[in-house]
Design goal:
This protein has one domain. It has eleven helices and no strands. 33% of the residues are buried. Helix 3 crosses helix 4 and helix 5 runs parallel beside helix 8. The chain is an all-alpha fold. The termini are far apart.
Length: 240
């Protein structure tokens, strides 16, 4: 008679649990279910309006209580990231947005430099947390994927592409700057820093395709001010 360890091992070796395809289906279903169950989604409404406000030249970091709760804290370049989803009907855009984020994380997990069994375990293990994050349409799912990809690309010697992952995460939500912790693993540090500087310039200028340079530069200043206010508010709350 098999003990629990043997039963778990036998279960893990079944095709349903040791292949990527079933996991991909589960993650896709989770994304679609999260969209349908949580529509309309306040976070995604904010995301959509980052694009439309940039397109119309409206302030990005002021409240719009008649449209959504809370305020936007994403960088101007986020307007370009969310653009393909913002121009879709709201529900379709939300479904595609969540599928895109889940897909990006799925690709990142598959590229982890560990044995296949470990990658599959991670994918199954985080499925529930993924659904929770997708239910709130959090961009943190994509941030996690970008950080994983940055590390993987550094390990593979693709410093330029790794720099892009870090730059995108930083220019969108600032959290991506955590990826600079991988700098110590970079073999060609000069190439990495050059690529990071180059991608930063590209991402800084990219939203100018949607609006005027004066407007975009002004919104970068407003973004810095909004993040400072948010940080001060968080520090004040911690002291209470």
């Amino acid at each position: 008679m098999m003990n629990w360890n043997e039963r778990l091992k036998a279960l893990a070796e079944r095709p349903l649990f040791n292949r990527y395809a079933p996991i991909g289906v589960v993650w896709a279903v989770a994304a679609i279910a999260a969209a349908l169950l949580k529509f309309p989604n306040n976070n995604f409404t904010i995301f959509r309006h980052v694009f439309w406000h940039v397109w119309e030249g409206l302030p990005l970091y002021v409240p719009y209580p008649e449209v959504y709760h809370d305020v936007n804290l994403y960088g101007p370049v986020f307007s370009c990231v969310v653009a393909p989803f913002a121009v879709c009907p709201p529900l379709m855009g939300l479904v595609l947005w969540l599928l895109a984020m889940a897909g990006l994380l799925f690709v990142a997990v598959r590229k982890l430099p560990i044995e296949r069994r470990g990658r599959i375990f991670i994918a199954w293990f985080c499925a529930n947390e993924l659904f929770t994050a997708l239910s709130m349409a959090q961009f943190n799912v994509a941030i996690a994927a970008l950080l994983i990809l940055a590390f993987v690309l550094i390990e593979e010697g693709h410093e330029g592409w790794a720099a892009l992952m870090i730059a995108v995460g930083t220019f969108v939500k600032l959290y991506g700057i955590v990826g600079l912790a991988f700098f110590f693993f970079v073999r060609r540090k000069g190439r990495f820093l050059g690529a990071l500087a180059g991608w930063s310039v590209v991402l800084f200028l990219l939203p100018m395709l949607l609006s005027s340079p004066e407007y975009i530069v002004g919104q970068y200043g407003a973004w810095a001010e909004a993040l400072t206010v948010k940080n001060d508010a968080n520090l004040f709350a911690l002291r209470q």
